[in-house]
Amino acid sequence: MSFQQGLSGLSATSKNLEVIGNNIANAGTYGAKSSRAEFGDMYATAINGAGSAKSGIGVNLLAVAQQFTQGNTSTTGNPMDLSINGRGFFQVSSPSGETLYSRNGQFKLDREGYVVNNTGDKLLAQGWNEAAGRAAGDAAPIRLQSGLGDPVATGAGSDLALRGVRLAINLDARKDVPATAMSFTQPDSYNFSTSQTLYDSQGAPLTMNYYFRKTAANAWDVYASVNGQAFDGPTPATGLVTSMTFDAQGQMTAPAVMPAINVIDPRATPLATPLFAALPINFTGTSQYAAGFSISELKQDGFASGELTGITFDTSGVVKASYSNGRSTNLAQLQLADFTNLQGLQPLGSNLWKATYASGEPTGGGAPGSGTYGALQAGALEESNVDLTGELVNLITAQRMYQANAQTISTQSEILQTLTNLR
Q: Which range marks the domain in which residue 368 is found?
């Protein structure tokens, strides 16, 4: 007579209750994955099958398998909360430098500007290569430098399509040639004017004024001043930038290409000190129609310095830093990791997993939404995939199973007592 079956049943059911209890406890844990106790029956069999006990000797816990099904997505409004809809794990670096993996996207900035999770592990991403327009290199912790972002002088921006100044305007063909000599202080000496802000190499703003003066039919001169002073040189400083001509249809015929000009700093001594050396000014799109003066484009590529105001993630995992001067800079791009055998990952707690021999090495790294990797959503978190209703039903079932196994032991005990009472 054996108590083995009942004892193994109690042990297995107790472990099942632990698994169910852990699932219920983590029903509200973002990124948590439910587990399932998996059992196997046990038989004692001698060599060649002789003397086998066909009734079996109980049950054994084979594995506690995690279920990596997708959890629901919950929006939070926090731009640093991230969720993955599909396959893949966030890669984080532990304080010891070990790479770990997580589905919990609750990230924040630490005192040094690193993007970290609640246990201080740093989120990894590939650095952004501005020249190539994509991420490149090995994954490294994302860090935001606090303080002022570097200013960019007009004409030195990274946008090659905008480089310098772009103006696209319409000059009214019906206007007459002014009768008075050109003077910035005499409005009747020019037909139209407009202005924009430029920035020097230190981010200081300067006002660039443009004056458009008709000189003949289909011909105009363009003058400019910086902070009210002409900039083309001290002898004489007329401020003439270029002359434009138009055909009978109002299309600009000259200049075909506006030569870059040297803008003199009116604050400097001597006056000829260059403020912007070879500043590109592009009038492409300018016309002369019998319509009012209008501006369809007035842009420049300079920026003042700016304070860091925030960080955002787009759907492809590109990390962008935003500054108070209106600029945004790509810093890095997240690279998700995936595994051939997800059940082989070792859970470490705190919503982290570690790669093992059973899981295999991560299958490379890919941007969110590429290949088989899931899509990224900022301002949202993946909820636990625990089915609370199902777990409560499983809890009742496990309790009944525990009671039933205890009853088999009780029954065996009564039978043994009957045998011992025989006379």
A: 73-149+307-382
